[in-house]
Design brief:
single chain, 11 helices, 244 residues, 8 strands, Rossmann fold, alpha/beta, two-stranded parallel sheet
Length: 244
C-alpha cells in the first residue's frame, strides 16, 4: 500500500521503518519540512516529503504527532479523497497539550482529533510504548506476541489498520467504535501494558472511565520524578499495577 506518515518522532519513524520493511511504499513528513528528515527517511526506507504531499496519492495516512497539534492540520485534508484511511496514534497529556475542555469533559480523544482534521480516524498504535513498538514485535503465531487495540467506526478502514498493525509485529484486537476508544487511552488497563490478545480483550472491558484520568496523572508524575531511573519493564509493570 501507499502510506503517508506525518510525524517523524519515535513512533512515526519506527512505523515507517517497519511498514517499509513489509513492502509498503512510505512517504514521511514532519512539521519542519522534508530537508530536515531526508537522512532519516532514507535510513528507514521512506521518502521525505512535505505534510501536504504526504496525504496525496496514498491510501492510508498515519498521524503521529502530539495530540494538540492536530488543530494545525484543519485544512490538510480539504482536497483529499473521502476514501483515504486516517490512523491516529496520539494521546492526550495535559502537561504537554494544555487543558482541552472537551477532552477533560470526557470526549474520546479520537473523536476530538477527527473533528480537528475534518475526517474520522482509526485509533491504533497509541497504546504501545516506543520501545515496545521498536523492539518487541514478533512473527504471527509466536508465543506471547503482544496485542494492540484498534478502534474505529468504519469497518473497512479499521480492517486495513488492523492488517497494518499485524505487519508491524503485533496482534490486532478490535476494540470497538470511536465512542468506546476511551478504553485504550492513558490510564486504562489496555494502555502500554504489553498484553497478549487473550489478555487485552478483558483489559479493555475492565476499563474504568472515571479512574483513567487520575491514573494517567499519577503515572506521569511518578515517571517524571524517576527520570531515567526506571527501566522499560518497570514502566510496563507500573502501568499494569496502577490501572489494574
Amino acid at each position: 500500500m501507499k502510506i503517508g506518515i506525518i510525524g517523524a518522532g519515535n513512533i512515526g519513524a519506527t512505523l515507517a521503518r517497519k511498514l517499509a520493511a513489509s513492502g509498503h511504499e512510505i512517504k514521511l513528513a514532519n512539521s519542519k519540512g522534508p530537508d530536515s528528515i531526508r537522512d532519516l527517511a532514507r535510513d528507514v526506507g521512506a521518502t521525505a516529503v512535505s505534510k501536504e504531499n504526504a496525504v496525496q496519492g496514498v491510501e492510508v495516512v498515519v498521524l503521529s504527532i502530539p495530540f494538540a497539534k492536530h488543530s494545525e492540520l484543519s485544512n490538510l485534508f480539504k482536497d483529499v479523497h473521502a476514501g483515504i484511511v486516517v490512523i491516529d496514534t496520539s494521546n492526550y497529556y495535559p502537561f504537554r497539550d494544555g487543558a482541552i475542555a472537551e477532552v477533560v469533559g470526557g470526549k474520546p480523544e479520537s473523536i476530538w482529533v477527527g473533528e480537528r482534521i475534518g475526517r474520522p480516524v482509526v485509533k491504533a498504535w497509541n497504546a504501545v510504548l516506543a520501545a515496545t513498538l521498536s523492539e518487541k514485535g514478533r512473527p504471527a503465531g509466536a508465543s506471547g506476541r503482544i496485542a494492540i487495540p484498534v478502534a474505529g467506526d468504519d469497518l473497512k478502514a479499521k480492517a486495513i489498520a488492523m492488517e497494518l498493525v499485524k505487519a508491524t509485529g503485533f496482534d490486532a484486537v478490535d476494540s470497538g467504535g470511536l465512542a468506546e476508544s476511551w478504553r485504550q487511552q492513558p490510564g486504562t488497563p489496555a494502555y502500554c501494558t504489553e498484553l497478549t490478545a487473550n489478555e487485552l480483550e478483558p483489559a479493555l472491558q475492565s476499563a474504568d472511565r472515571s479512574r483513567a484520568p487520575g491514573n494517567r496523572e499519577a503515572l506521569i508524575r511518578e515517571f517524571m520524578a524517576a527520570g531515567d531511573k526506571l527501566a522499560h519493564d518497570d514502566i510496563v509493570a507500573r502501568n499494569r499495577a496502577v490501572t489494574a
